[in-house]
């Protein structure tokens, strides 16, 4: 335990650790509560955590880590089929949840342990537990399952520790930082970075519960120093800034604004910077790798990039045949492969998928396509399966076209895909949510707009107009769903 959270070892301090709404725990109270719960978990093979944005979820995960028992965070919004698959696949022996929570039928066969924070925080001092191997599994986090049932990525303790320490180096993250966010706690972003990150540093986290710009302004104006969010949140911030001087002032006073889980459009970067004088920085990671790259706090916050590899992370771009790119020129597209202590151990119960995910010499195939500038900055251009378009002999990344489209004043949202074309192989297709649905920008105008900003071969050949883009709970556009609109 001490290797993950030094601030909870020994005699923890009485300063703030966690706050959810008007409920909070100091480090001393968190250590007491988690240590009181941990003995009830020690004989469990795995524990499911009903991961609502509450103190109970945070205490449950910390207790499981204290006990050395892998935790499986569950999305409370999961459908019956998906939840049933995760429970069968991970086979937890009990479920941790807040008292009074109504759990779905998929969890009905499991022993239930209610986390009564008020009772646990009064149960005496912390208990000592033996050291736990850094290679022991800490969490089993299920992927989004866009190409089949979700797979459980087994994340070892060493991956959590090395990722959070690398981010501390990149972001100059210390015990004096207070993080505010409203991210869900069943993903890497909200749980590992957003809860375990502050706890490893000895700092504090304030969770908003539900995102709103008023909450962001309030917390950043009253001691919070860092904001974590996804592009949807920063888009709402950008929309609100022109008429909300209090929000602009609060953001201007923040030490660090971080966006992740999907690309933040350059247009929103620029709007936030213009209104606040502060640049949002981006980082890049995924469930299986935790964090791979980031713009550094002391580096250039270059909009549209995810920065440079974190300490300890090896990163390369490869051709379709696996040959590494030999020169980084900011234009050549390759698949990102990474290697380092930040990687997951395996897909639970899926040795075939685990083997297929790695090269023989240990590089993880991310499936993400990128270009890399000569100075090492990485720019993601999309997923290999959905965002790499091969048109007329060119490799085209959807992301840069989406950014170009979003610079058009008549475009509110944009997504780009490829579809078969008898002449080009694939043609570029744009899916547009117009700023004014009564008067959408013409397709030829959008094509010309892209061609003059990027290159003629990157212009959309087909344009579809929608009222909204389909997104998942992290704000990522679900491009496979777009194709059903055709």
UniProtKB/TrEMBL annotation:
Pfam families, alphabetically? AMP-binding, AMP-binding_C
- MF annotations from Gene Ontology: medium-chain fatty acid-CoA ligase activity
Q: Which residues form the AMP-dependent synthetase/ligase domain?
A: 10-348
AMP-binding enzyme C-terminal domain location is 400-476
For the biological process aspect of GO, one term held by this record is:
fatty acid metabolic process
- Family under the similarity heading: Belongs to the ATP-dependent AMP-binding enzyme family.
**What is this protein's record name?**
Acyl-CoA synthetase
The organism encoding this protein is Streptomyces capitiformicae
């Amino acid at each position: 335990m001490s290797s993950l959270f030094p601030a909870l070892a020994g005699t923890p301090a009485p300063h703030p650790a966690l706050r959810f709404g008007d409920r909070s725990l100091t480090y001393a109270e968190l250590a007491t509560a988690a240590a009181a719960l941990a003995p009830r978990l020690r004989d469990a093979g795995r524990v499911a955590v009903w991961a609502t944005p509450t103190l109970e979820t945070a205490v449950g995960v910390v207790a499981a880590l204290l006990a050395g028992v892998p935790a499986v965070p569950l999305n409370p919004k999961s459908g019956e089929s998906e939840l049933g698959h995760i429970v069968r696949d991970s086979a937890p022996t009990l479920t941790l949840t807040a008292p009074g929570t109504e759990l779905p039928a998929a969890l009905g066969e499991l022993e239930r342990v209610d986390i009564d924070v008020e009772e646990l925080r009064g149960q005496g001092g912390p208990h000592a537990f033996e050291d736990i191997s850094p290679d022991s599994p800490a969490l089993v986090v299920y992927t989004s399952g866009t190409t089949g049932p979700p797979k459980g990525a087994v994340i070892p303790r060493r991956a959590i520790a090395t990722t959070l320490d690398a981010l501390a180096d990149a972001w100059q993250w210390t015990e004096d930082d207070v993080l505010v966010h409203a991210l869900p706690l069943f993903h890497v972003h909200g749980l590992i970075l957003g809860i375990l990150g502050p706890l490893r540093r000895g700092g504090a986290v304030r969770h908003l519960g539900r995102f709103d710009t008023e909450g962001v302004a309030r917390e950043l104006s009253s001691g919070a120093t860092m904001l974590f969010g996804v592009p949807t949140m920063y888009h709402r911030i950008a929309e609100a800034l022109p008429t909300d001087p209090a929000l602009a002032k609060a953001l201007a006073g923040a030490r660090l604004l971080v966006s992740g889980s999907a690309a933040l459009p350059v247009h929103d970067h620029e709007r936030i910077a213009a209104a606040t004088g502060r640049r949002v920085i981006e980082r890049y990671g995924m469930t299986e790798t935790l964090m791979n790259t980031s713009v550094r706090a002391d580096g250039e916050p270059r909009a549209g990039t995810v920065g440079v590899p974190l300490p300890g992370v090896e990163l390369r771009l490869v051709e379709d045949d696996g040959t590494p790119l030999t020169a980084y020129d900011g234009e050549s597209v390759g698949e990102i492969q990474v290697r380092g202590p930040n990687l997951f151990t395996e897909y639970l119960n899926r040795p075939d998928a685990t083997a297929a995910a790695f090269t023989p010499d240990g590089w993880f195939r991310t499936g993400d396509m990128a270009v890399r500038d000569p100075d090492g900055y990485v720019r993601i251009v999309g997923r290999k399966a959905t965002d790499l378009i091969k048109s007329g002999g060119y490799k085209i990344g959807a992301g840069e076209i989406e950014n170009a489209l979003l610079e058009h004043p008549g475009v509110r949202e944009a997504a780009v895909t490829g579809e078969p074309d008898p002449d080009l192989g694939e043609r570029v297709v744009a899916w547009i949510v117009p700023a004014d649905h009564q008067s959408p920008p013409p397709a030829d105008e959008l094509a010309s707009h892209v061609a003059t900003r990027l290159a003629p071969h990157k212009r959309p050949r087909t344009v579809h107009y929608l009222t909204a883009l389909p997104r998942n709970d992290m704000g990522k556009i679900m491009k496979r769903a777009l194709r059903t609109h055709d």
